[in-house]
TrEMBL record:
Keywords: Metal-binding, Zinc. Belongs to the beta-class carbonic anhydrase family. This is carbonic anhydrase. The keyword Zinc applies. Its cofactor is Zn(2+). It catalyses: hydrogencarbonate + H(+) = CO2 + H2O. GO terms for molecular function: carbonate dehydratase activity; zinc ion binding. It holds the Pfam family Pro_CA. The keyword Metal-binding applies. Binds 1 zinc ion per subunit. Its EC number is 4.2.1.1.
Amino acid sequence: MRLLEEILQNNESFVQERKFEPYLTTKFPDKKLVIVTCMDTRLTEMLPQALNLKNGDAKIIKNAGAVISHPFGSIMRSIIVAIYALKAEEVCIIGHHGCGMAGLEANVIMDQVEERGIDNNTIETLHFSGVDIKSWLKGFSSVEESVSHSVEMVKKHPLLPKEIPVHGLVIDPDTGKLDLVVNGYELNEMSAQ
């Protein structure tokens, strides 16, 4: 059985047996929190448990490295929507130790792109269209610096209400221990002075 068939078969019994009922909640986050974190598989269950979150407590946005790379990209749009339409009142950017984006070089990905059959003409077309593939695919050298940069991008966004605290944390995917990088409450207090 192929993966999609397995997923659909499981879903059919999930719905028929009403296994969804324990997960019912509203679209509004109970803890009024929006989290940007990494898509790393080790965090799927670890992160909510480490933060004492249950289904419905927070909006969780995931991408490679918990990186906010553009102030008007889809991650920032999701944060703005979570605040204005879904009543979130705090933001957490949570990176993690041992992230695959740490030290990632674009050349490694581009070699794999070529090995998978994407021809050089396509890559050149992207380049001539103004896409800087090497910057777009480049990782970061320090997870703490990356988290701080993302916090700053959110905090300085022109549509972010000034009173919204934006926190930065790093989680250990082996133990769940959180390290504080930026305390959003303190950041708000300092900017109010």
